[in-house]
Structure formats: structure tokens, C-alpha cells
Amino acid sequence: MAVQVLFELRDPDQLGVLVNSREGMGSGAPLSHDVLEQVLDLLMRLLPGAALAYRSDRDGPIRQRNGQWNQT
What's the rounded Cα separation, in Å, for the pair 40 and 54? Predict the structure, then answer.
């Protein structure tokens, strides 16, 4: 299954990330969720001082993993 990851530089200090797939949300979309976690982990390694915030536009907030990320 294809999972798209799109990055949008909104301002010099703000990056938008979109993870998109056709995976069903009924099972929690584990593949898409795993891709999102990998992207967020990579961004945290590349930008250790960055404040990350995330949300799911479709089905409400995604559960935080170990409280490392902020949810908006």
C-alpha cells in the first residue's frame, strides 16, 4: 500500500507534514501511523530543539507516543 508523505514549508520556521493513504481508519491505520512516527522521529533527530505538534484532520487526534510530541 502506498503512503504519501508531503512536506510544505509554510514559513522559515514552520514545516507542514501530511501523511496520506487509503488505509482504513477502523483498524487505526497502523501502516500510516508507523510512517508518521518514523517521519516525526527523523525530524526530532534533525531538529532536536524543534517543537512538534500534530493532529489528524480526518478522525480526531492521533494518540501521542510516550508524550514526546504535542497534539493540537
Answer: 9
